[in-house]
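Please go through this protein, sequence plus C-alpha cells, and consider how the sequence yields the C-alpha cells. Keep your notes short.
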Amino acid sequence: MRNEKLLNYIGGKWMEPSNNRFTEVTNPATLETIVQVPLSLKQEVKEAVQAAKKAQKSWALVPAPQRAEVLFRVGVLMKENKERLSQLLTMENGKVIEEARGEVQEGIDMAFYMAGEGRRLFGQTTPSELKDKFAMSVRAPVGVVGIITPWNFPIAIATWKSFPAIVAGNAVVWKPATETPIMAYELAKIFEEAGLPKGVVNVVFGSGADVGEAMIEQEDIRVISFTGSNEVGRNIAGKCGQRLKKVSLEMGGKNAVIVMEDADLSLAVEGILWSAYGTSGQRCTACSRVIVHEDVKEELEKRLQHEITKLTIGNGLDETVKVGPIINQKGLEKVRNYIEVGKEEGAVLLAGGHVLESGEHRKGNYFAPTLFTDVTADMRIAQEEIFGPVVSLIPVKSMEEAIEINNSVEFGLSSSIFTRDVNKVFAAQRDLDTGIVYINAGTTGAEIHLPFGGTKGTGNGHRDSGVAALDVFTEWKAVYVDFSGKLQRAQIDVE
C-alpha cells in the first residue's frame, strides 16, 4: 500500500476528488509516507448525500433481519482479515499491535452484536385507554446519517456508529480522520464484498473545514454523530441546533483512577499503567489523574516510577513494544507544552517529561511516559485534556475528598476506584459523575454491549455502542389501530 492514492467511495464507486487534491499520510512511528488521501470538497459531500438518499429508500424496505445478515457477513470478513487490518491500523495510527488487534476485535464484536439487533429492534405495546383500539410504538430509520470519526480509534468508533445506523435502515455518509484513512478504505471494501447495496455507505475523505462543514449544511443529512474535541463538538452542536438536526457528541475526558488506602496496590499500578500509557495516552478514556489516599501515596509513587522504567517505547509493529508514538508533531508539541505548564504550576516531575529524539526514536513522534506528583486539583494539568502519556498524582485524605476532586473537572467520561471495601464500591458507583465507572480496574476497557459516553463536557446525552446507540439513528413512531368501527376521541370519550 506504499504511497497509494486512496479514493472516495460514493454510490458504490471509487472516485477521485473533483479538485484532484491529495495529502500525504505518514506513519507516526517512522515518519514515512504510507498513502495519499483525498482532500475532498462540498461537491463530493453533495454527491454522497444524493447516493445515500436514493439507496436509503430501498434499504429501509429490506426486512431488518436481512439487513442484519449483511452486517453478519461484514463481521465474518473482518474476522478473516483481522491480522492484516491490525497491521495496517498500527502502521497508520501507531498504537501497539496488541491494541490494534483489540480494536479490530471490537469492530468484529459490534458487527455480530448489531446483527443480532436485526431480529430485535424492539418497540413497545401498551393498552389503549379506549375499547377496541391497539397502541404500540416502533423504531423508524432517520434517513441519511453523517458520521465523523477520529484518528485514535479509526475502525472501532466507526463501527459503533455505522453498524447500528445500517441495521436500523439508514444510509451513511462517513468522514474519517485524514490522519488515519486506511481503516475507512478497508472497511468500505469489506462492506462492498459483504453485499451491502451501493450507496448505503459512502466514504468522503477530507478536512473538517471542508467535508465536515458541508455535511452539517446538507439538509438531507438528519443526524450528525461526532467523536472528537470539545471545541469542534460545540461548534457542530450549535450549527445542527439551528437546523433542527439531531446530533450525537462524544468529546473526551479527564479521567481519574482513585486509589484508596485499602487498595491492592499491585493491581492498581497495573491498571494505572495500562490506562495511562496504553495508546500513548491518546484515548478519551485514558487515565490522566490518579487520586491517591495520602497513606499509600509514597508507596504508589515508588511502584509507578519503577514500573515506568520497564515500559518499552517504539514502533508498535514490534510485539515487545508497550508504548507507541504520538499521532503527529502537533500532538507532540501539545504534550511538551503541558509539561512546562505543570512545572510552572509547581507540580513535581518524577518521570519522563521529554520528547524521545535519539537512537531508534529519532524518526518518530515519541514522548516518554510522564508522571507528576504533588499536583493540586485546580492545576491546569489536572483539569485540561492533554491527550498524551502524562499522569498527575493528587493526594487526598478521604474518599469523600477523592469523589469531589474526581467530579471537579469539565468532563465526565470514565472513572475508576481501587478498594477492597464493598461499602466504598457502592458509594463510588453512585457518586462518581461519569458515564462509565470501573471498580478495581483502570479507566479503559469498555465493552460493546454497554452504552459508551459521558456527562458534562464529554457529550450531549446520547451514547455510542450497546442498544442505546439505536436511539441515535432511529425515531420513535407511535401507532394507534382503532378497530371499533367508529370515531373514538382519546381523553374525551373515556368512560
Q: What stands out?
A: The chain has a mean pLDDT of 97. The two ends are 73 Å apart (CA to CA). Residues 356 and 362 are 7 Å apart (CA to CA). Residues 4-251+459-479 form a domain with the Aldehyde Dehydrogenase; Chain A, domain 1 fold (CATH 3.40.605.10).
